[in-house]
Amino acid sequence: MRFPPIFILIFLLFLSCKQGPKISDKKVPKNPDYAEIGMSYAQETQKVLGKTLMTTIQEKGVVEAVKFCNERAYPLTDSMATNYNAHIRRVSDRPRNPKNKADASELAHIETFKKALASGDTIVPILSEGNGKVQFYYPIVTQALCLNCHGTPGKTMAPDVIQHLSQLYPDDQATGYASDEVRGIWSIVFDASKSPD
Q: Which residues in the chain show pLDDT less than 70?
């Protein structure tokens, strides 16, 4: 049985419309948004630390939260770093633990964030890129809850908390803060080839 050429043409057009390539409507960025990637790493790590810290405070009190920070903050941060295949640190110009002391470039970024916060400027991450790596910096700003351990001794910090801190951190510099002050920064290094999920 022979079909007229017009039927064959219509049939071929029908096939070409039905089986054309699928085109995603999702926009694929030409360049990864490194600020977005770094921010997601910082926020997720902060969420894990904050949630565990809050639970510890609610269930066991602030003294136990001090112990948690001393024993568990580093392993939790390291597990998040492993999860993201990144180097994640929290550093400060006034560290509690000497391991968290900011280096010269981090100190400069801390000052930049302090000035921006004091003048009411919008806080945006600081990024640098080189050798296939991206360095991300973003401030850690104190909130009311932070002042239980980072506030003023005898005012926002209870005596038993002060005692435990002095035993665990004899060279503690991380007190005397008020709300909405830059206590330190996130310092995160990750591969420049990463793209947002």
A: 1-31, 195-197
